[in-house]
Amino acid sequence: MSSVEQFTPTVVSLTERAVHKVRSLKEEEDNEELKLRVFVTGGGCSGFQYGFTFDELVADDDTAVAIEDVTVLVDPLSYQYLAGAEVDYEEGLEGSRFLVKNPNASTTCGCGSSFSI
To answer: Where does this protein have coiled-coil stretches (predicted)?
Structure first.
């Protein structure tokens, strides 16, 4: 008998830089309950834009992804737009920010926080 390999796709993944930043922010706030919420809203220069916030509460319909000691939350409306996306964190001349590398986006704007499907 051959074994069947099962694969459960992860809604979002985090780069090591993003995991490290979330971990350091949790330590700064002295709150291990903080979770990174990634969401999509209408607007921006390309139709949709990404948003990030920290949340202690998990809604019943949230999808939670645990990566090491960091949890990412995605609400059901944002799920369809973020499936397969990667969250990164960068520090540069434009400042420091979380950003999303999204395979579902057909176009993105120059600021990197807006996209279209």
So the answer is: none
Contact assessment for residue 8 and residue 83, using Cβ atoms and an 8 Å cutoff: no
**pLDDT tens, position by position, 58-85:** 999 999 999 889 999 999 999 998 999 9
Query: pLDDT digits over 93-110, tens only?
Result: 878 899 899 887 765 655
pTM of the model: 0.80
Domain ranges, residue 76: 13-101
Residue 107 in any domain: the answer is: no
Q: Would 23 be classed as within a structural domain?
A: yes
109 is in an annotated binding site: yes
Q: Are 59 and 74 in contact (CB under 8 A)?
A: no
